[in-house]
Amino acid sequence: MKVHVVSDVHGRADALARAGDGADALICLGDLILFVDYDDHAQGIFPDLFGAERAAELIALRTAKRFDEARAMSARLWATLDGDPREHIERRVRSQYETLFAAMPTPAYLTYGNVDLPRLWSDYLRPGLRVLDGEVAEIGGLRFGFVGGGLKTRYRTPYEIDDEEYAAKVAAVGEVDVLCCHIPPAVPELLYDVVARRFERGSEATLEAIERTQPRYALFGHVHNPLYARTRIGRTECVNVGHFRGRGVPYVLEW
Fold first, then answer.
1. Domain holding 229: CATH number?
2. CA dihedral of residues 245, 239, 121, 160 (deg, nearest 10)
3. What value does the mean pLDDT take over residues 104-113?
4. Residue 92 forms part of a structural domain
5. 252: which strand partners?
6. Is residue 79 part of a domain?
7. Which residues form a coiled coil (predicted)?
8. Among candidate residues 175, 95, 101, the one with its CA nearest the CA of residue 143
9. pLDDT digits (tens, 9 = 90+) for 215-251
10. Distance (Å, rounded) from C-alpha 73 to C-alpha 67?
11. Contacts for 41 with CB less than 8 Å, ≥ 6 apart
12. Phi, psi of 91 (to 5 degrees)
């Protein structure tokens, strides 16, 4: 069996359409939407609405950890729009989802990222696309567990949940051969982004489950430029499958 795994697609429909080539199945670990691109400030929902210059200002404030100023700036800009800002966002999110789900190869097993809007996904699913969150699927004789979303942060992205709710999903998955999450386990070297120069949040519940159950693999994304892309926890190979928007190439898992 050969499975291709992607995470942090962030709008790369062109590469996503090819991501399943030569594989028996595709796994997508979320973050389909592109809100703002830290590398190309003209790309994403925010610059579509307010321009690349405003996007660059927002990114600079966030990178400097001036989060209150970033939120105040965003609030001023959103207030300039006619109507409810949420309607402007949802229209653009839906446009991205329509393109991305149409490009998604089948069969594919998907879970949510922290910037995704789970309530919208059902509108774009088609046969061969299966969404799992706190659930298990058998693929090629192995048990794959899926845990979507992220934990609460200062960024307040759409699908961030409480530690207890996240831990409950990890517990519901139980013992598996491959644990698939959007965010990494709480191992510092897996959480530090060397370009953004900050630690992202990882899951203590995932780390405890890996230490206790020792799956063959723990696969995740979320950290776009990790200090370490992989490490071992006992017999478990922990792998950041890569920033798909940046690389356009899936991680290959064979057995």
1. 3.60.21.10
2. -100
3. 98
4. no
5. 4
6. no
7. none
8. 175
9. 999 999 999 999 999 999 999 999 999 999 999 999 9
10. 10
11. 47, 52, 53, 55, 56, 59
12. -60, -45
- Which residue(s) pair with 226 in the sheet? 193
Where do the H-state alpha helices sit in the chain?
A: 13-16, 45-50, 52-63, 67-78, 85-103, 118-121, 163-173, 188-191, 204-213, 244-247
Is 43 strand, coil or helix? coil
In this structure, is residue 85 part of a structural domain?
no
For range 100-129, the mean pLDDT: 98
Q: Which domain holds residue 223?
A: 2-33+105-254
Structural domains counted in the chain = 1
The predicted pLDDT at position 196 comes to: 84
Q: What is the pLDDT of residues 148-204, one digit of tens each?
A: 999 999 888 999 999 999 999 999 999 999 999 999 999 999 999 998 888 999 999
Contact 243, 6 (CB under 8 A): no
The pair of structure tokens assigned to 30 is: 């979320």
Give how far the C-alpha of residue 34 lies from the chain's centroid of Cα atoms, to the nearest Å. 11
Q: Please tell me the predicted confidence (pLDDT) of residue 204.
A: 98
d(CA 72, CA 79): 11
**Inside any domain, residue 78:** no
Token duo for residue 91: 């229209």
